[in-house]
Amino acid sequence: MIKKHTSMFLSVLRVGAAIAAVGLLLAVPLRAQNSRGTILGHVQDPSGAAIPGATVTYRNVATGVTGTFNTTSSGDYVFVNLIPGTYETTCEAKGFKRGVSSQLVLQVDHTLRQDFALEVGPVTQEITVSGAAQMVQTDNASLGGVISDRLMEALPLNGRDFTSLIALDAGVTQPVGGIQASVFDQHGLNDTWRMASVNGARPGSISYLIDGITNNDMFFAKAGVVPSEYSVEEFKVQTGLYSAEYGSGSAQINVAIKSGTNSLHGNAYDFLRNAAFAPDNELNIEQNALHGTNPPLSDPLKQQNQFGGTFGGPIKRDRAFFFGSYEGGRRRTGGTAGSMMVPTNAERGGDFSDWPYPIYDPSTTVVTGTSPLTITRTQFPGNKITGSLNPIAQKLLAYSPAANASCTMPCQNFFGTNPGSSITTNTVTGRVDYRFSNRDQFSSSAVIWRDAQPYPSIIPVNSSVDLTRSQLYGVDWQHSFGPSSKRCAGRVQPRVLP
Prior knowledge:
The chain has helices spanning about 1-25, 150-155, 280-290, 345-350, 390-395, and strands at about 35-45, 55-60, 65-70, 75-80, 85-90, 100-105, 110-115, 115, 125-130, 145-150, 170-175, 195-200, 205-210, 215, 230-240, 250-255, 265-275, 300-315, 320-335, 335-340, 360-370, 375-380, 415, 420-435, 440-455, 465-480, 485-490, 495. With about 500 residues, the chain is mainly beta. It folds into three domains: about 35-130, Immunoglobulin-like, CATH 2.60.40; about 145-340 and about 420-495, no CATH class; about 345-400, no CATH class. It is elongated, with a radius of gyration of 32 Å.
């Protein structure tokens, strides 16, 4: 039966892959939800008349990637689906000086307008067009704010979890209750994470995107994967008036993964927290003196390391680029002082005479009425179980510690130290961009996330392990049918959450 089910699953997987491939090859014109931006504008002569057929060229300063567009009959041009970064645009038309505008900063889901007013003269001469007002977004009504990689790296973040910065945007609150960092929503080393509410909406109504790929968990409205902070170029919290392409969500968290450039670049890091840097816990000191126990004096955190690195660069200059990152998280905590009620030595033998409440013999249960249901049982004489004890219960008692404190039952008669716990995370992020020609571009992104958190207990049967294994993959292909047409885009975005 298992082999049959496995075979059926593989068949379905192959069919799904085939459909995805066909969808990619036969993509229809669209502008899907994405983390890219648009540069557009209008070209006119000194009298204000439109200049049709002018050649506008963009160049990404970091990658050297270029593209051209011939202005329409109304003098307009547009470049869509450009990765965030710094751009330079030039405009040329016969009988006019060449227009140049540089240092145009394009952000996530940003529509940047750069108009050109060309002057009459030879094309060998240049005029510089000011980009001072280009950051004022007049062609896109969406509301929100962008958090850059520089800001993420500069701010102190618990667990280096960039999703904590969502709370910085206007209209965002973190209400009491709801899903927090727990078994249902693990956030690695960030144990203070809380869901956010945007403009008063339910916290579970935020939509997460990575490079245009839906990144929502299938059960809870949270991020399915959390990439390393150092792999994120920037992200935008869109809080209102965003276009219908985004579909659902009271807000959009639009994340752009870093891409490679024409130069090799990378970094390595390790953030360390250690118990040696923390003072002793006065409460533990008092408990040790009162009960004669020996829980650790310092807080439970023994050591935490969050380490990793990034590396990116060119595969083929001005054409193909790669970027990759790895981040590992390791937290080891010592045992925490704890107390609980456990069976006394007499109770282990069936003697509950020290218990203030009567205990009954379940074998004497008699139903004396059905409406309402009433039953009677016979109390064990003196609260002492007669006859043989249940062998299964006797075996389970082996997993319960013996009482080490005397008190009147019911009471906390055991003081000890819970076993140390740990958190282990591993995150791999990658991206490849390839420009085949001026008309065809390809990119792919992947995030693989593992989060394991065992919770041992003094009583082994109470132990547990919380495990998150998430994977996200996306492939994007764009084709332009001519110098005066927008691109057609096809996107395949499988998400695997085993």
